[in-house]
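User: Sequence in, structure out. Go.
Assistant: Echoing your sequence, followed by the structure tokens.
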Amino acid sequence: MMQQPSEQTISATMENKLSPTYSTALAILTLSLGGLFLGSGEFASMSLLPSMADSTDVSIPVAGSYISAYALGVVIGSPVIAAIGAKWSRRTLLLTLMLIFVIGYICSALAWNYSSLIAARFLSGLPHGAYYGVGALVAASLVPENRQAQAIGYVMMGLAAANVVGVPVITWLGQHTNWRIAFAVIAVGGLLTAFMLLTFIPPMSPQTGTNAKAELSVLNIPQVWLTFAVASIGFGGMFAVYSYITPTLTEVTHMNLTYVPLALITWGLGMVVGNLIGGWLADRALIPAIFGMLIWNALFLTLFSFTAGSTFWALCTLFLIGNGFALVPALQSHLMKISGKAQTLAAALNHSAFNLSNALGATLGGIAISNHLGWASTGWVGGLLSISGVGFMYFERVLAHKSKMNIKTER
């Protein structure tokens, strides 16, 4: 049974309804555009890594620290910024986050050595999780209750679309000009987003009854931690496959390297479709949707180990794996409903969890490959991680049921 939204969610929805001078569609489009640039910068840096390594006179394995520094920035920045900005207007907070993003990419483009680029990538990652979290809260506050998960899905659409449009374009630009120019273009995109945030997001009064202490109180809610585990472990399967998709396609599927980007676009299109369907399903039956998506991921990630040898079936499976991105808006919506007045921190933590899932999936997939289980073994790893997510979600539901029983007993 779907949980009822908190009083804060209801009041936020009532307070932040758009005046006739603002458009809900343009507001959500703006939030999604910001997500597109954030996602493009994060993923394109992986494909531009060789040229970044060459420019800073380090090996590619050492340059991998640039990606780790960004992820560390996301994990640290999400809770810290959410707590600091708890009493800020959400539009002000979004603008601040986007400006930090712009500064981070300008510094990245101007970095002169390994240390300066590490620092710049860390700075670039700081606003990532908080932006998606706050953006989701703002989008949900602009629509009726029965469309909130879909609105969150539209914001996350920017991240999904980054894999279809943003990453190929930025990668092409970086390869044909210079990775610094590519990062500068992303910074310009951030400035455009900041202008649109100022233009299309309505002024929002600070949330009442919240502060840094209230936001941090979310860490005392066991259900939040279990949902965090669902995101960081249950979603890690997708990254177990994604992290090694290029060598898997070239070595197992025997696909020409030239066509690998088309496979990634196929995956990205699956993410876009899954994002739309996931929001729609979550608005109708949130908890069943989360369980269903975890099982879907477990099924098709495992199936990839069997279909990787065929180009046609591998591409079909990758599209269906991409559909599993539907879990993102559903978990985001669930965290908002169980976090009480600490919604900003809870929403931001969701994206810290997904970055941890990136690291976990890549690590476990790498262990499987290094133990001579084959490139396609990442599918088995992904399936096991998704099944683990089902287990964590089950315990979260048991705990929620016990909490309701205790409340009824006390009454």
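User: And one key feature?
Assistant: The two ends are 21 Å apart (CA to CA).
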